[in-house]
Each structure stands twice: as structure tokens, then as C-alpha cells.
Amino acid sequence: MKKSLMLAIVMMTSTIIFAQHAKNSHKGHTDRFEKMKTDLALTDAQYASIKSIDQKYVNKREALKGDTSQTREAKGTAFRTMRTDEENEIAALLTPEQKTKWDQLKTARGEKQKEHFQKISEQREAKLKSTLNLSDDQSQKMKTVNQQFMEKFSALRKSDTKDKAAFEKLKTDHEAAIKGILTPEQFQKWTAMRADLRKRHGHEHGHTQKG
After folding, report:
1. Smallest Cα–Cα separation from 145: which of 128, 133, 123, 159?
2. Tens-place pLDDT, residues 48-68
3. Is residue 14 within 8 Å of 149, Cβ to Cβ?
4. Distance between CA atoms of residues 176 and 167, nearest Å
5. pLDDT in tens, 127-183
6. Of 8, 79, 89, 126, which sits 20 to 30 A from 145 (CA to CA)?
7. What is the distance between the alpha carbons of residues 204 and 21, in angstroms, rounded to a whole number?
8. CA 164 – CA 160 distance, rounded (Å)
9. 43 Ramachandran zone, left/alpha/beta (phi>0; psi -120 to 50)
10. pTM
């Protein structure tokens, strides 16, 4: 899934979800369907239909990614709609028993991902604390500010707003809050870290697009 620059910045400073490298994503995608076939005891016909549905939405997502006429917010809404539509089409192919088990598996997978992302978040917070030489008080304040930022950022995304000024204001307010916590030297280093992340994100995205 394509990440925006704002999300790349969030990845450095708050509870974050990071994308797998492109070279691993296809394998994980294939493994997911193989596991689904086993876990739900899908028939060959169901399995073939589900893979066909998925390929249809893979093509739609790729087309949407390349659509330069739509805003990032509009694309985000379209991606979420596609995900819901795809799951509904797949669910329609399942028996009631398979649907119940599928829902249970999705819930369990979500909990596992939460645990994984929490661990990653804690590791990043520890690294940030060490790199910037934060005090315990500063570290806790940074964590609180970043969490509040993520909650507001997520709320804006879910609202499907096209008001870019709202996102910019949120970003500016977040930076001001961070600046109020850090010393001038720490803030300068934090800014440099963010600029480096922006640069690497842009490079990796460009490389993925070429591939």
C-alpha cells in the first residue's frame, strides 16, 4: 500500500504501521490465500473464485495508484471502499460456517498485528530516546504528543476531508508541541532525522515504482 509523506513522518515519531518491502509482499499475499484455503477448507471452485476476485481488485488498486487526477485523500477513500467491496464479494462465496471462522481469523490476525506494531513502536521510541538523549520526562511527553497526533491524524483521514489546510495545521501544531518538549539541540537533531526519513522514503518509493 502506497504511503504518503505524512505517514512516513508519523512512522518515525509515533505508533506506526510500517510497510513490508516490495520483494516480500507478493509472497505474503500468495501465502495468505493458501492459508485461507486450508483454514476454511475451501473447495477448489471457491479458491479459484476468491483468487479471481482478488486479482480483479489488485488491478483496480494498481490503476488507482497511477491515477494522477485524484487527491491522496480521495484515493484513500477509494482504497478503503475497494477493500470492503472485495471482502463482501469473498464473503458471499463462503458458507455460514466458513464466514464465521473467517471473521474469527481476521479478528485474531488483527490482535496479532496490534501486538507486533506495539512492539515496533516501543523499539522506535527507545531508539528515539537514545538518539536524542531524552530524559524520562521528555520521552513520556513525546509519546503522549505523538499519540494525540496520530489520533487526530487518523480522525481526519477517516472523515475523508479534502481540506489540505487541516492536515498542514495538524502537522504544524505537532511540530510546535515537539519543539516545546525538546532542547534547541534536540529539536535540530529531530528535524534532521525527519528530513533524512523523508529523503529515504522518497528514494525507496521511486525505486519501487521503477520496479
Report:
1. 128
2. 999 999 999 999 999 999 998
3. yes
4. 14
5. 889 999 999 999 999 989 988 998 888 888 777 666 778 888 998 999 999 999 999
6. 79
7. 9
8. 11
9. beta
10. 0.56
